[in-house]
UniProtKB/TrEMBL annotation:
GO molecular function ontology, one term from the record: acyltransferase activity, transferring groups other than amino-acyl groups
Protein name: Acetyltransferase
Record keywords: Transferase
A Pfam family that the UniProt record links to this protein: Acetyltransf_3
Length: 205
């Protein structure tokens, strides 16, 4: 059953921060641009692999125009703080040469890093991907991005070294997740997202 891009998930971080998680929409351009401007130079570099101060308007249009089939994008926002443009986002693009795989990326606001935002977003796009016949996520992680590489490793992703970065492959099979803090946290989030999917199906039946 495909995800309904018009519905939102209400979830909380472990510290109680209330989040609204939904698919990105074209009208999100302004807050996406503002959220990017608030990222630290390091966070921008790790996400785009170059030193940039502003996002190209064409790239913003691409980010905000997912078809939710071959390009999927979700965003997490604070439910009550209008002054925070965005807490995090995750997206994937289906690979043309391998339609059961997709390249995945994450962005988390600096002040919310290390608080489980990426895990929550991974659970959402994981379940979304499975409904589309995608069974593997491929990530590209710069050598300098030690935290991201450690996270993938703790989940049980396979990795291959390239000249400038690591290529990670995560099989979307919960039984293959490591029994680590990262893996167990993801299992909890996956169960929450599946529960939401079942509620959504019940509403439609």
């Amino acid at each position: 059953m495909p995800f309904d891009p018009h519905r939102e998930l209400s979830l909380s971080l472990a510290d109680g921060t209330p989040l609204s998680v939904r698919s990105i929409r074209p009208e999100d351009r302004d807050f996406i641009a503002e959220a990017f401007r608030r990222l630290s130079p390091e966070a921008r570099y790790f996400r785009f692999w170059m030193r940039v101060r502003e996002l190209n308007p064409r790239l913003i249009d691409q980010i905000c125009s997912p078809d939710q089939k071959d390009h999927v994008a979700w965003v997490a926002r604070h439910q009550t703080r209008e002054d925070i443009p965005g807490i995090g986002g995750a997206s994937f693009w289906r690979l043309k040469e391998d339609t059961q795989a997709a390249e995945v990326s994450f962005t988390v606001a600096d002040e919310f890093q290390g608080r489980g935002v990426a895990t929550l977003l991974l659970a959402v796009i994981w379940q979304h991907a499975l409904t589309l016949g995608i069974t593997r996520f491929v990530g590209h992680v710069l050598h300098e991005n030690v935290a991201m590489r450690a996270w993938w490793d703790a989940l049980g992703a396979m990795e291959q070294e390239a000249p400038r970065h690591w290529i990670t492959t995560l099989i979307l099979d919960e039984s293959l997740l490591e029994h680590s803090h990262a893996g167990n946290s993801l299992r909890v989030r996956l169960a929450q997202v599946r529960e939401w999917m079942n509620e959504e199906k019940t509403l439609k039946d």
